[in-house]
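Self-study notes.
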Amino acid sequence: MQVPFQIEVGCNTILGILHIPAKRAPGSPVVFMSYGLNGNRVDNNRISVAFGRKAEESGIIFCRFDYRGLGVSEKDFWEISMTTKIEDSLAVIEFLKGCMQAEKHSLFILGFSDGLRIAVPLLKHDIDVSGLILWSPIFFIETKYVDSSIPKKFEREPVSKEVVFPFKGLWINQKHLRQQVVLGTEYEDFRKFSKPKLSVFGGNDPATLATFKQINNGVSDIHGAKNIMIPDADHLYSGSKWTQQLITETVNWVKDVSEGSIDK
């Protein structure tokens, strides 16, 4: 069952979808998704929709939504930043808590690609998170894999005339750009998070190679960490068999953690 929802954040409307199992036991796990730069509507194979449907079948509640400035939510992209995305995420999570009322549940945060720049900082807030899932995480990147076709200068956004950085069809404001390119403490925060952590990588994804090496080399020192490599998969798991494996591995892991098969 897919249930549309809308909430107000900063006088702007955020729209999203809850995937809710038709039959579920009290205390169903809840997965909240944090997207990469382009958001929910540019995923190959509509991967978040496919995950939501599989979650429904598996007794898992799944939440997907558009940040302000993306998709069908209000605002323009050049007005937003990592800060507003975290604000949006906290507001949606608070909405989810209200939906669950007093029902005890396990909350999982899922960060896709550089969505980890939202997912990991959420761990510092007053949220009871049972597990962290990262698909194609980019904590580190080697400069030789940076797309040379990306423009190196700012422009004026045609309508607002704001100074922006054009990136793959997006107008990024100066604050947002600084937040994107400056490496913060996300990797150390990831390491310190004491609950179970699942990281999934594509075997043919140069963008995450440096991150995979770093996490894989230190996995024995990172409490509760599990790494999965999907052979030949690209960054967005654009092949249907890669998408299917990604979703199956993730759903099974969430169920195992929720049922206590993996130590919390």
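Second protein, same conventions, sequence then structure:
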Amino acid sequence: MMTAQAMADRLSQRSFREYEGFIENRSA
């Protein structure tokens, strides 16, 4: 089982990537 910290890190990394994609889509 993953720790809460590991889950938080994973979630933040995914959210950051999705945010980057959002910025790229808007600028395209």
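Instructor comment on the second fold: The two ends are 40 Å apart (CA to CA).
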